[in-house]
Design goal:
alpha/beta, 37 helices, globular, Glyco_trans_1, transferase, SPS, SPP-like_dom, Sucrose-phosphate synthase
């Protein structure tokens, strides 16, 4: 009960009594008397955002006139406090147990990882502090040399000369536009929105960067501005005289808005999770189109792929991971604020159960997105060292000790045994300083103007603020933050109100976002604002505190300027501040700072040395620091000068220079095919049939015809060398050209790396027939046996395939191996060519049908394997899983029964398969995944076939990602796909539900062990299933062909 010392002793007495209070008959009788409702009372009066509400309720209860009602209220309030305290103690105990278990798991993972990496440890791997720091970058002072932005840009221009880079940034929640950003409108439109927009703008002006796309959500809702519905918005450079000298038709920085989610509705980030696959598909289409356009403009006809995809915040990180995997392009990630850190804060408050946190904030879905981002990222960009040391180390996928060992081994070119860890890089956010002129005047003198250059009139926002003050000439203490409890504004007001010397010397200005009416604000924000207003009234701060209702983004620099003009101070009292961009903005305008000692301000203060750090929980410390800076003019001037002297270290050119150098250090990756799209299109257009056999027949016919002509000509060759000779030469040229072309196709097919046991004369696998299908049906139902799957398959083939034969293509997507599928289909007399493609082993293998049955009816797409092999652990992963299998046993009496066994028969290069004897005894997916992540092994773990099998596949592979690969590789339109799934399925089932494709859910079909497979999920399926999506439709149990047709018509899919 921090902050409630008035009741601590009472609580201790109650808690000491313990179970004796359970006998509460007298209490119950009191509650039942009269018309007083304790339940309603506690809901309306006691439960609030802050525990200080309890004290106010206590005071009100004591003031009740009726003794009977007063006693009842006080007794019930005591019970509420007791329950709250007991709940907090219980949560603390549970949390301590979780942390102890986590430490043990982490240590075991480190030991096993170190044992596998059996080479002698170098000095860099032994855990010294210096090595630890260098693993995450040097100090900011050391990394950022003190040179001007002009020098930086001139040097970078020479280094980047001739480069044409394409970058993609992603930030999908909030309201994003280039000008007049509505920062503070809601919790989703905050500082991170401004950061990512300015980053895109700055990168677009850098030498060597041709185009930057910032992808976000397109929102066309009646309650927001029309500009958020514009598909594209160009970000104009801040400096018209900048260094951009490479303009082109599509060059520059752009906001690109992708439509996804509910139409005509702006929704908070917690509700966006089910629609992320739809965003990914839309973004994939944009990137493919833009890469082609840029390739035609500056790439010599070859696509210009992005050099990196950068996700901002957890939802964009999840999206970037899927896009990075689909395109095989390096990924960067910036968390901004992290889910595990928020979870810890919520648990400490003790006001919500874990389920309530999950339902309100979708916190576990957010954490899993951040873990997936760690799995997929080359680089994780942080603003401060605190973010690495105190926040990222909470995650399963990042361990600073293992990261240091891996980094040392990489430098020595020693094998890491399949282990990977993203590189943590500290790059402070940047700012534009060229337009900022620090104010040297004060409220008593006008130093800004003279006779030749008269001073400009005061900005309107100045009058809007100063109208609150009885003495506007006093120094201004400025706080700029939305009314959120974690911003700690109420403590600031208390510190100001209770320090009389500070009130006499200074005014307080609170810029708390924009609002029309308190009733229109969210409950949390409204409660903070009301608390501030009550404190103003309590301490009688009228005429000393300003809290304007509205301001524009363009007004913010003028607000800083006003505070500097009054010789004021900027304060950020947040409990934890991930970075603190406003501190840099304030310093650039000549304002000293007082800031929280928790988080990014520590690093900022280390560089700028322009103020004081305080404990945000210590009200007196805040008041003392503010008073010291306001009262001591020499200290104020020194802090101001230090800030202005060092501020260039946080410029955007500095930021972008470091940013681009880090990207340059990544291993280049992009889609690479062993046969170009141009060759394929040319061969397909020349081919009179899908089958190479037809081409071969034409070749032979022509050859025979030409041979006949040659023989006839040869008989008269000695007698006549006239016009016939020219004809023979032409015919020979035609024949030779055709035969060379024929051999070239066969040679390219062999070169492509497809399996040697397939017919290289068959072009069907190389040019899949589904490329010309009008619609594609993907059968992705899950079952323990192939009998159960093919019952559905046969219905689809009979109902849809026969009616639209030739126009409709079929793809089978399954957890079974190709050998199992082939054996089954042959045993049942089924046609292997009913399917154009087979996605097998949970998405780790992709095959195409081949119409040459002499050797093999399938061709493997090895381009797909090269696409998904990134970060595949291989033998290192296999060794760890072998050890894990041996630890999963069922003890019966004195014997141990092995629950999991390796399935060597169905294990492939990119799928490690295991048989499961008892699905109820194996750990859930999240536990196996955690074990792998803690040892820096990146993979997908899939329980399938009713829990009787486990497939471990590359982190970039999945059944849903295989469909996106078909879009990238063969240009298949995802919106022309219909994916049939059951009512339940394997543990990768959720990935098949969302996206641009149509999803047909077959009720009554699917895994019978769904309750086992999905019982221990980190988050419920409802958090990721877009139930209201127009692309999803359900078909009733025992469906008929009529039901299928009706469902396809409902999603607008039937072929006309």
């Amino acid at each position: 009960m921090a902050g409630n010392d008035w009741i601590n002793s009472y609580l201790e007495a109650i808690l000491d009594v313990g179970p004796g209070l359970d006998d509460a008959k007298s209490s119950l009788l009191l509650r039942e008397r009269g018309r007083f409702s304790p339940t309603r009372y506690f809901v309306e009066e006691v439960v609030g955002f802050d525990e200080t509400d309890l004290h106010r309720s206590w005071v009100r209860a004591q003031a009740t006139r009726s003794p009977q009602e007063r006693n009842t209220r006080l007794e019930n309030l005591c019970w509420r406090i007791w329950n709250l305290a007991r709940q907090k103690k219980q949560l603390e105990n549970e949390e301590s147990q979780r942390m102890a278990k986590r430490r043990m798991e982490r240590e075991r993972g480190r030991r096993e990882a170190t044992a596998d990496m059996s080479e002698d440890l170098s000095e860099g791997e032994k855990g010294d502090t210096v090595g630890y720091m260098s693993a995450h970058g040097d100090s900011i002072r050391g990394r950022l040399p003190r040179n001007s932005s002009v020098d930086v840009m001139e040097t970078l221009t020479s280094q980047q000369k001739g480069k044409k880079l394409y970058l993609v940034l992603i930030s999908i929640h909030g309201l994003i536009r280039g000008e007049n950003m509505e920062l503070g409108r809601d919790s989703d439109t905050g500082g991170s929105v401004k950061y990512v927009v300015e980053l895109a703008r700055a990168l677009g002006s850098m030498p060597g960067v041709y185009r930057v796309d910032l992808l976000t959500r397109q929102v066309s809702a009646p309650d927001i501005d029309w500009s958020y519905g514009e598909p594209t918005e160009m970000l104009t450079p801040r400096d018209a005289n900048g260094f951009t000298d490479q303009g082109g038709e599509s060059s520059g920085a752009y906001i690109v808005r992708i439509p996804f989610g509910p139409k005509d509705k702006y929704i908070p980030k917690e509700q966006l999770w089910p629609y992320i696959p739809e965003f990914v598909d839309g973004a994939l289409n944009h990137i493919l189109q833009m890469s082609k356009v840029l390739g035609e403009q500056i790439g010599g006809g070859e696509p210009l792929w992005p050099v990196a995809i950068h996700g901002h915040y957890a939802d964009a990180g999840d999206s970037a991971a899927l896009l990075s995997g689909a395109l095989n392009i390096p990924m960067l990630f910036t968390g901004h604020s992290l889910g595990r850190d928020k979870l810890e804060q919520l648990q400490k408050q003790g006001r919500m159960s874990r389920d309530e946190m999950n339902n309100t904030y979708k916190i576990m879905r957010r954490i899993e997105a951040e873990e997936l981002s760690l799995d997929s990222s080359e680089i994780v960009i942080t603003s401060t060292r605190q973010e690495i040391e105190q926040q990222w180390r909470l995650y399963e996928g990042f361990d600073p000790i293992i990261e240091r060992k891996l980094r040392a081994r990489i430098k020595r070119n020693v094998s890491c045994h399949g282990r990977f860890m993203p590189r943590m890089v500290i790059i402070p956010p940047g700012m534009e300083f060229h337009h900022i002129v620090p104010h040297d005047g004060d409220m008593d003198g006008e130093a800004d103007g003279n006779e030749d250059h008269p001073a400009s009139p005061d900005p309107p926002i100045w009058a809007e603020i100063m109208r609150f003050f009885s003495n506007p000439r006093k120094p201004m203490i400025l706080a700029l933050a939305r009314p959120d409890p974690k911003k700690n504004i109420t403590t600031l007001v208390k510190a100001f109100g209770e320090c009389r010397p500070l009130r006499e010397l200074a005014n307080l200005t609170l810029i708390m976002g924009n609002r029309d009416g308190i009733d229109d604000m969210s409950a949390t924000n409204a409660s903070v604002l009301l608390a501030v207003l009550k404190l103003i009234d309590k301490y009688d701060l009228y005429g000393q505190v300003a809290y304007p209702k509205h301001h524009k983004q363009a007004d913010v620099p003028e607000i800083y300027r006003l505070a500097a003009k009054t010789k004021g101070v900027f304060i950020n009292p947040a409990f934890i501040e991930p970075f603190g961009l406003t501190l840099i903005e304030a310093a650039a305008h000549g304002l000293p700072m007082v800031a929280t000692k928790n988080g990014g301000p520590v690093d900022i203060h280390r560089v700028l040395d322009n103020g004081l750090l305080v404990d945000p929980h210590d009200q007196q410390s805040i008041a003392d620091a503010l008073l010291k800076l306001v009262a001591d003019k020499q200290m104020w001037a020194k802090c101001r000068q230090n800030g202005l002297k060092n501020i260039h270290l946080f410029s955007w050119p500095e930021h972008c220079k470091t940013y681009l150098s880090r990207i340059a250090g990544c291993r280049p990756r992009h889609p690479q095919w062993q046969r170009s799209e141009e060759e394929i299109n040319q061969l397909e257009s020349d081919s009179p049939s899908d089958s190479w056999r037809d081409i071969k027949d034409i070749s032979l016919n022509l050859k025979f015809s030409l041979d006949g002509e040659k023989n006839e000509v040869g008989e008269n060759l000695d007698n006549d060398v006239g016009p016939e000779k020219k004809s023979v030469d032409d015919n020979n040229k035609l024949e030779n050209a055709l035969l060379r072309w024929s051999k070239g196709v066969q040679k390219d097919t062999r070169k492509s790396g497809f399996s040697d046991n397939v017919d290289h004369a068959s072009g069907t696998g190389k040019f899949p027939v589904f490329r010309r299908r009008k619609h594609i049906y993907v059968i992705a139902v899950d079952h323990q046996t192939l009998d159960g799957i093919f019952e559905t398959v046969q219905k689809m083939l009979d109902d849809v395939g026969k009616k639209y034969e030739g126009n409709a293509g079929f793809i089978l997507s399954t957890s079974f191996s190709l050998s199992e599928v082939e054996s089954y289909m042959l045993s049942k007399g089924l046609n292997l060519h009913d399917f154009d493609a087979y996605v097998c082993n949970s998405g780790s293998d992709l095959y195409y049908s081949s119409h040459n049955s002499e050797e093999s009816p399938f061709e493997a797409d090895l381009d797909y394997h090269s696409h998904i092999e990134y970060r595949w652990g291989g033998e290192g992963l296999k060794k760890t899983l072998h050890r894990w299998v041996g630890s999963i046993t069922d003890k019966k009496d004195e014997t141990e029964e092995q629950i999991v066994a390796e399935d060597d028969e169905h294990t492939t290069d990119f799928c490690l398969a295991f048989r499961i004897q008892n699905p109820e005894k194996v750990p859930p997916v999240k536990e196996v995944r955690k074990l792998m992540r803690m040892q820096a092994l990146r993979c997908h773990v899939v329980y399938c076939q009713n829990g009787t099998k486990l497939n471990v596949i590359p982190v970039l592979a999945s059944r849903s990602q295989a469909l996106r690969y078909l879009r990238v590789r063969w240009g298949v339109d995802l919106s022309k796909m219909a994916v049939f799934v059951g009512e339940s399925g394997d543990t990768d089932y959720e990935g098949l539900l969302g996206g641009l494709h149509k999803t047909i859910i077959l009720k009554g079909v699917g895994s019978r062990a769904a309750s086992i497979l999905h019982a221990h999920r980190s988050y419920p399926l409802s958090h990721v299933m877009p139930i209201d999506s127009p692309n999803i439709v359900e078909v009733a149990e025992d469906f008929s062909s009529t039901d299928i047709h009706a469902a396809l018509e409902k999603v607008g899919f039937l072929i006309s």
